[in-house]
Design a protein that fits this description.
alpha/beta; Rossmann fold; UDP-galactose 4-epimerase, domain 1; 2 domains; seven-stranded parallel sheet; three-stranded mixed sheet; binds 2-amino-3-ketobutyric acid
């Protein structure tokens, strides 16, 4: 692939589950030197290959300084407080999720940035939305702080596009499963934790009921969808709030049954907590025909294929860690 070196990309929340992997994928396209990673906490990228700046997304002035300093042309604004964590930090979660987005949109408007990516979530749906094959346009009455902020954020993205021409693009991510980093503060996090417990021969206590089915996606598909959306011609982007995308859907008992094919001794108990109510209000399967039509969306991984790849990759990682004396 030929490198496009004309873009300078700033990533917020770059230490997060998605941030570290998006940075690597963007570096392949645009070159490592053109990726500026930022986060509120210190650089957690183990190989420190990207330029890193400390950034609190609520701090508009520092954001402006960084955009000027690095001649930024695109922002991937990933910093957010997720659904479960947002329930215990109401005010601060709202501020980070909303003020952070508005700061990025404002900077994009003032500096005429080329493009912005901002993730929305299936959390914009609520108990009154259809549960199965949830359409792009439907009732959206989210019940979590996070869901309300994502819903409002989607409308702000559309507003900035229509009023100021800011080319901001967005996906309604489901739960994302990857082996390189851990998620934090989400309702779908169990689907990553469960692998680490199985690989380490530990038992697992699941915080959701065994039959609660949610939309999920393997990290390579999430990265593929993000880059495909961002690379699509502007005239083909018909959704300026955020696109529905479907990867796979499963319940805890379904993913555990699949993991047990590799770890038959794996012990699981169920102790649903407050996250059960959040999960119950979300769809179980998303309808994504507009993403398919506009930019050819098609996932590569189903449950079986994803579980196999997760187990292989985590086993390799474990062996490396044992060799290096980390475990
Ligand atoms: C969460 O569980 O909060 C996130 C999401 C679905 O947006 N993974």
């Amino acid at each position: 692939m030929q490198k496009n070196t004309t873009q300078k990309i700033l990533i917020t929340g770059a230490n997060g589950q998605l941030g570290s992997e998006i940075a690597d994928a963007l570096a392949i396209r645009f070159g490592t030197n053109n990726i500026i990673t930022t986060d509120i906490s210190i650089n957690s990228n183990p190989d420190k290959k990207f330029k890193f700046e400390k950034l609190d997304v609520m701090d508009f002035d520092t954001l402006v300084q960084l955009v000027k300093k690095y001649y930024i042309t695109q922002i991937y604004h990933l910093a957010a407080i997720l659904s479960a964590k947002g329930e215990s930090n109401t005010q601060i979660a709202w501020k980070i999720n909303m003020d952070g987005l508005l700061n990025v949109l404002e900077v994009a408007r003032i500096f005429n940035l080329n493009k912005v990516f901002w993730p929305s979530s299936i959390a914009i749906f609520g108990p009154t939305s259809p549960k199965e094959h949830t359409p792009q346009h439907t009732i959206t009455e989210p019940e979590t702080n996070y869901g309300i902020s994502k819903h409002a954020g989607e409308l702000w993205c559309k507003y900035y596009f229509e009023k100021y021409g800011v080319d901001v693009r967005s996906l309604r991510y489901p739960g994302i499963i990857g082996y390189k980093s851990m998620p934090g503060g989400g309702t779908t996090d169990y689907a990553v934790e469960v692998f680490h417990k199985a690989i380490n021969n530990e038992s697992f206590v699941c915080f959701l009921e065994k039959e609660t089915c949610l939309p999920m996606m393997f990290m390579p598909d999430a990265i593929k969808a993000t880059l495909q959306l961002m690379e699509e011609k502007k005239e083909n982007i018909s959704i300026r709030t955020s696109y529905n995308i479907q990867g796979m859907s499963f319940s805890p008992e379904e993913i555990i049954a699949e993991i047990k094919k590799y770890h038959p001794e794996f012990l699981v108990t169920y102790q649903p907590d407050f996250r059960q109510k959040i999960a119950e209000a979300w769809p179980s399967k998303i309808e994504d025909k507009i993403a398919k039509k506009d930019w050819n969306w098609k996932p590569d991984f189903n449950l079986k294929k994803m579980v196999k790849e997760m187990i292989i990759q985590l086993e390799v990682q474990k062996k490396d860690w044992i060799k290096e004396g980390v475990l």
